[in-house]
Design a protein that fits this description.
Blueprint lengths: L2 H14 L1 H39 L3 E6 L11 E2 H11 L3 E15 L4 E9 L10 E5 L4 H5 L4 E5 H8 L8 E5 L4 E11 L4 H6 L6 E5 H7 L5 E2 L1 E6 L5 H16 L7 E5 H44 L1 H9 L4 H38 L7 H27 L3 H6 L2
Parallel strand pairs: 4-9, 6-8
Antiparallel strand pairs: 1-11, 1-12, 2-10, 3-4, 3-7, 3-11, 5-8, 6-9, 7-8
Helix pairs in contact: 1-11, 2-9, 2-11, 2-12, 9-11, 9-12, 11-12
Length: 405
């Protein structure tokens, strides 16, 4: 019996027991579809996270005092430190800005609106991708003059004034210390976040104003709480950020005391990708258990099939079929059952992935590698769990098989 005849005989046997074969495939179908769905959603999540970080800026670095190490007054960063960083690392930094942020409320006739006040300097638009739709961003004169001006987002303008063309208008902002009237000099559009679309969570509103203005409001002087930087393309972000920390430590004489720490968007992205990768792997492994259960089901049915067809095996042996022919016949049948289950499971897995991605608003990322691995795995299950029943069938004694009723 050649290979094609084995396929024909196996297909006939499967068709003769359609319901039993379908139930046997069920474990393979569930396992394959589950693995593909989980892996696809995991890859889609990582792609979405990557897009979010690209939008945020992967070369961004945040430098701050490490409060866990109990810094003293001599450890606090100053504006002289920032000027020194610009002189030494100016060719490696596109933008550098001190930052001071606090929550506040806009007092309007209609409503009280929660907002974040973010104090930055005139180079911050080289760090953050700010999509100005009207007016201008902060300028050096605004920062040096401690002007009470602000750049607000379009949604805030619409909520406060009912329109977006509000340049020159004033907003009254209440902070924890005092109220301040800010003149609107620019309107920007906040990019829609995939995470906010997925969760329905509304992004917090934000207004940019000169860092000197907000420091004046809170009575701060030369002390710098946080620094944001955008490292130039082609530079090693981690290496540059570490060099800046060592430079600040030398200026303050606290080398090795870890008084400062940095957060890089690149490092955060790697950490998030690592976590999502581990979660996807663990869930995929759990889903793959059903494949093992499905494989056991294939082996069980094939053993039943061998018992039911013992006399048929004896007749085939009597008319010249050798041990290899019998082995191939039952092995091919097991592979076909697993293969069909794999195909159905793949189609269902891809369908579930697209439906789930639409429902939770994650971009579907079905890779050919995932489908290929799923098919190979299903074929492997058929071979692995089909070998024992096929081997048992091939070792039957022809005389005993012919006597079997």
């Amino acid at each position: 019996m050649n290979f094609f005849e084995s396929i024909k005989v196996a297909a006939h046997a499967i068709w003769a027991n359609k319901m039993r074969s379908l139930l046997t495939m069920l474990g393979i179908i569930i396992g394959i579809s589950s693995v593909i769905t989980v892996v696809t959603l995991g890859q889609g999540s990582r792609a979405m996270i990557g897009e979010e970080f690209e939008q945020f800026g992967v070369n961004r670095v945040y430098l701050s005092t490490n409060w866990r190490e109990n810094p003293t007054a001599r450890d606090y960063m100053t504006y002289e430190d920032l000027e020194a960083i610009k002189r030494v690392f100016g060719d490696k930094i596109l933008g550098l800005s001190s930052q001071f942020q606090d929550s506040a409320k806009i007092l309007s006739r209609k409503d009280t609106i929660n907002i974040y006040l973010t104090g930055v300097n005139e180079t911050y638009n080289k760090i953050e991708k700010i999509d100005l739709i009207d007016g201008r961003f902060l300028q050096e004169g605004d920062v040096k003059g401690k002007r009470e001006v602000a750049v607000i987002d379009e949604d805030t303008a619409l909520q406060v004034f009912g329109r977006s063309n509000v340049l020159g208008e004033k907003i009254l902002v209440k902070t924890g210390y005092r109220n301040i009237s800010l003149v609107i000099i620019g309107i920007y559009r906040t990019p829609k976040s995939a995470f906010s679309n997925m969760s329905g969570y509304e992004q917090p509103k934000n207004a940019y104003l000169p860092v000197s203005t907000i420091e004046k409001m809170y009575g701060e002087g030369n002390r710098v709480y946080g620094v944001e930087m955008n490292i130039a393309q082609g530079e090693d972000v981690q290496e540059v950020s570490e060099s800046i920390v060592k430079f600040i430590e030398r200026r303050h004489g606290n080398e090795g005391e870890e008084k400062y720490r940095t957060y890089t968007a690149e490092g955060e992205m790697e950490s998030v990708n690592k976590v999502t990768g581990i979660i996807t792997l663990v869930i995929s492994a759990i889903a793959a258990i059903s494949l093992v259960v499905g494989g056991i089901g294939v082996m069980n049915i094939m053993l039943v099939s061998v018992t039911e067809r013992t006399r048929e095996i004896g007749i085939r042996m009597a008319i010249g079929a050798c041990r290899k022919d019998i082995l191939l016949q039952f092995l091919v049948e097991a592979i076909i059952i697993s293969g069909i289950g794999g195909i159905i499971g793949t189609l269902l897995g891809v369908s579930f992935s697209f439906l789930a991605s639409i429902f939770i608003k994650i971009p579907p990322t079905v890779s050919l590698n995932t489908i290929a691995v799923a098919w190979l795995f299903s074929a492997g299950v058929g071979i692995f769990f089909g070998i024992y029943p096929a081997n048992k069938a091939s070792k039957l004694d022809p005389i005993e098989a012919l006597r079997y009723e």
